[in-house]
């Protein structure tokens, strides 16, 4: 089965190449299948991070693992914020303006 999909990609180009500028606007079942395939490929790839003044670094985690970790962090932060008595955002008090007299 893997050989068939590899031959299909070879004949049609990779699924990433099939995604044009308007690929996300085409709701046809074939296009949805291509986009899901492209998304699966991207999620299986190793995570690439930008390093300030150092280019890029390939991480140990896949993009899927990184997204799972980030989603967990968002849930924890939401739980922390929902339990607080004081608001998360503090407003800066306006300073009185000096008048020229």
UniProtKB/TrEMBL annotation:
Question: This protein's superkingdom?
Answer: Eukaryota
Give the record's keywords alphabetically: Hydrolase, Lipid degradation, Lipid metabolism
Q: Name one GO biological process term.
A: lipid catabolic process
Q: Give GO MF terms, alphabetically.
A: hydrolase activity
Q: Does the keyword Hydrolase apply?
A: yes
Q: Where is this region: Disordered?
A: 1-24
Q: Does the keyword Lipid metabolism apply?
A: yes
Could you say which protein family the record assigns here? Belongs to the patatin family.
Recorded protein name is: Uncharacterized protein
């Amino acid at each position: 089965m893997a050989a068939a999909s590899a031959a299909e990609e070879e004949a049609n180009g990779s699924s990433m190449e099939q995604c044009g500028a308007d690929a996300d606007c085409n709701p046809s079942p074939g296009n949805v299948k291509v986009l899901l395939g492209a998304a699966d490929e991207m999620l299986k790839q190793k995570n690439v991070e930008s390093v300030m003044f150092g280019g890029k670094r390939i991480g140990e985690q896949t993009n899927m693992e990184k997204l799972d970790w980030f989603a967990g962090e968002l849930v924890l932060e939401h739980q922390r914020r929902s339990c607080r008595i004081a608001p998360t955002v503090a407003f800066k008090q306006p300073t009185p303006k000096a008048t020229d007299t």
